[in-house]
């Protein structure tokens, strides 16, 4: 994906902000493809190396670091700061750093919590264990040429115990270059002779490829969310973003074009990267409750998404939910589905597209991930924190916008429950539609709000700049008018 500075969004981001709300507003953002790009792993490590807010211990030499706080909440926090919603914690942290980078790059098995049976832990030796288990382990003396994105493990005193781990950024015939956490109390770029006896070996990421990460956050497959509208005649119109080309003014620089018809008859339409290829597909629930998948083959079909193949049924019985919310809950690049039933229970239907031979949402029993969700006027999925896991924004009857952070890995696969929600805005009840979309292409979901006059207003996220308080640090700006006449806005 595109190399910005919000970690994966800027590097491989599969950023997802695919909302569905009762008002017929859906956000059309896609998630990153499932292939594990080695350049994306390195870019994610470089992103953290350059992040001056967290690329060192604070206070220096204290052991307090962001990465242990992100994963291992049982470690001591005395004297440690907090940032980006994470309480920093005191521990050796080289393994936490490498796990964070691998998880951001969507390396298989890196997102399984340590306390939930995950092989990667806070111990550097777990990276050798990963390679041994999945057949990607190579000793220093094996003749293997280390590849970008590999983990490299060290035994500083040749005692037989692994002491340290880093990320390989590059290598040549004689030298391996690395990016390491907990190297002199900070993240550092280092280099070693490939014959250095401190190097034990390398574990490659499962499924690693040398392909550059491809942008994927929209109908057109770039990181800038486009808009789809359904008019009263059922026509599906594409408004391309073109944020960079048009000097930061999205949706206005080109005439919209028709990309489908007959879309007015569905009970619910949801954008979601079901197939994990980085292009937003569409899911539609018909009057019989069948869930139909319209794949986006915009490249194959010469710029015409959703029309080149017959839709196929991927589920039934979906008509009875009060809300269906597409969201990459598990952070694997394939959009899952959340449902709210009449009792207010929040149920997760995982998308195991690859495991289940292209049949999403059906291979596992749904599981409850929350309750009491029936009282909100809107539930908006959005990667507010820019970490690749979809958070939820809930709008209450008073117009308050509440953020429920995902924290899927930290909380052992139980999203939205490990932290109290926090208010990130008020006065949101007066908008007829609120559409989450990464308009600016930085990996953090922005919000588009439609007022009673049909004006489309952009509330930029600016999560990092504004110290974790999204949507409030800048005045909203108008990015369109005349949007009030559409039956649906899909973003």
UniProtKB/TrEMBL annotation:
The keyword S-adenosyl-L-methionine does not apply. InterPro entries: CHAP_dom (IPR007921), FG-GAP (IPR013517), Integrin_alpha_N (IPR028994). Residues 1-35 form the signal peptide. Transmembrane segments: none annotated. Keywords: Signal. This is VCBS repeat protein. The keyword Zinc-finger does not apply. It comes from the Bacteria. Residues 90-182 form the Peptidase C51 domain.
């Amino acid at each position: 994906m595109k190399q910005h500075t919000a970690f994966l969004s800027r590097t491989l981001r599969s950023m997802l902000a695919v909302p569905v709300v009762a008002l017929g507003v859906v956000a059309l953002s896609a998630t990153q493809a499932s292939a594990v790009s080695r350049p994306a792993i390195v870019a994610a490590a470089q992103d953290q190396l350059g992040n001056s807010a967290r690329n060192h211990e604070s206070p220096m030499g204290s052991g307090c670091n962001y990465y242990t706080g992100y994963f291992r909440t049982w470690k001591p926090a005395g004297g440690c700061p907090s940032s980006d919603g994470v309480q920093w914690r005191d521990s050796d942290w080289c393994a936490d750093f490498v796990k964070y980078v691998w998880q951001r790059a969507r390396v298989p098995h890196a997102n399984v919590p340590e306390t939930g049976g995950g092989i990667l832990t806070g111990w550097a030796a777990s990276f050798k264990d990963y390679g041994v288990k999945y057949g990607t382990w190579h000793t220093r003396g094996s003749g293997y040429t280390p590849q970008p994105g590999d983990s490299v493990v060290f035994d500083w005193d040749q005692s037989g115990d692994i002491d340290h781990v880093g990320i390989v950024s590059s290598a040549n015939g004689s030298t391996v270059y690395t990016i390491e956490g907990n190297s002199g109390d900070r993240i550092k770029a280092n280099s070693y002779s490939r014959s250095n006896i401190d190097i034990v070996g390398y574990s490659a990421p499962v499924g690693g490829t040398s392909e550059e990460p491809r942008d994927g956050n929209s109908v057109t497959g770039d990181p800038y969310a486009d808009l789809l509208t359904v008019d009263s005649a059922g026509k599906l119109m594409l408004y391309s973003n073109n944020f960079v080309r048009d000097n930061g003014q999205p949706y206005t620089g080109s005439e919209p074009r028709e990309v489908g018809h007959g879309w007015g008859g569905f009970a619910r339409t949801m954008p979601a990267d079901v197939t994990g290829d980085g292009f937003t597909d569409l899911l539609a629930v018909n009057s019989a409750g069948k869930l139909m998948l319209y794949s986006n083959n915009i490249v194959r079909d010469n710029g015409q998404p959703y029309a080149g193949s017959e839709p196929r049924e991927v589920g039934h019985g979906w008509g009875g939910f009060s809300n269906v919310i597409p969201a990459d809950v598990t952070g694997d690049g394939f959009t899952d589905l959340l449902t709210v039933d009449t009792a207010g229970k929040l149920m997760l239907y995982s998308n195991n597209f690859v495991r289940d031979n292209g049949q999403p949402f059906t291979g596992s029993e749904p599981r409850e991930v929350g309750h009491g969700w029936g009282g909100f006027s809107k539930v908006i999925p959005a990667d507010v924190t820019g970490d690749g896991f979809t958070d939820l924004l809930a709008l209450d009857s008073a117009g308050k916008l509440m953020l429920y952070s995902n924290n899927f890995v930290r909380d052992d696969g139980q999203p939205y429950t490990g932290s109290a929600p926090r208010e990130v805005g008020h006065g949101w009840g007066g908008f007829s539609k609120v559409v989450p979309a990464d308009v600016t292409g930085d990996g953090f979901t922005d919000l588009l709000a439609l007022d009673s006059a049909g004006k489309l207003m952009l509330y930029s996220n600016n999560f990092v700049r504004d110290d974790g308080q999204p949507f409030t640090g800048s005045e909203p700006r108008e990015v369109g008018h005349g949007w009030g006449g559409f039956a649906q806005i899909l973003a």
